[in-house]
Amino acid sequence: MRAAAIIVAAGSSSRMGFNKLLALLGGEPVLRRTLGVFEKCPDITEIILVAGDEVRTVAETWDVPKLVCIVPGGAERHLSVKTGLDAVPSSCDLIAIHDGARPLVAVDQVTRCLRAASRLGAVTCARRITETLKRADDSGRITGSIDRENAWIMETPQVFQRDLILNAYDAVLRDAVLVTDEVSAIQHIGQTVHVVENMTPNPKITVPGDLIMAERFLG
To answer: pLDDT per position in the chain (219 positions), as tens?
Structure first.
């Protein structure tokens, strides 16, 4: 089995006010930590980084042997993912797609997702919702409750058999559908995605407070 990882790192970081992917986390850039997880995963054979010019310039100085290429991102996330998909070698059976801003995902969790995808076709790292959920209107007035029994928070990596995710993205682009993750792309073509439960920290660095929380997870 050959598996490629696409690390999506082409976002604008507008909510941070600075490039979150190059911010230091435990003395190391966030994105360098993310790449390091996939470098350590024995089932990953190559890494494709999707990034803008600023990140590319820095990432090219890092020692990441499995990083085979850096490709430019698109105007939307799904276009960045498509650029990454186009760069995956045809010899790869599985493709894992992961947010560059999730540096704390565990190597074991990546491995579990890869092995599940080899059996099931399409899987996503996900977390059960444990908090109470409420629905509110535009004024902030609570209008009802949301059943959390079968609700999951989607995380990454999201892992797929090669032909399945390529077919899904061809359909998304053909139909001009805007998807926010790869699970939505697979659902668009009527295929099933399974969850692989994650029990370890895997926050997405989005706002400055997320860096503080991630530092605490590192101990």
So the answer is: 899 999 999 976 656 667 999 999 999 999 999 999 999 999 999 999 999 999 999 999 999 999 999 999 999 999 999 999 999 999 999 999 999 999 999 999 999 999 999 999 999 999 999 999 999 999 999 999 999 999 999 999 999 999 999 999 999 999 999 999 999 999 999 999 999 999 999 999 999 999 999 999 998
d(CA 74, CA 106): 28
pTM over the 0.90 mark = yes
Pairwise CA distance, residues 141 & 209, whole Å = 26
Q: What does 165-210 look like in DSSP terms, one character per residue?
A: HHHHHHHHHHTT---SSHHHHHHHTT---EEEE--S------SHHH
Helix (H) or strand (E) segment spanning residue 9: strand 3-9
Q: Which overall architecture, per CATH, does domain 3-212 show?
A: Alpha-Beta Complex (3.90)
Distance CA 50, CA 74 (A): 9
Q: Assess contact for 72 and 86: CB atoms under 8 A.
A: no
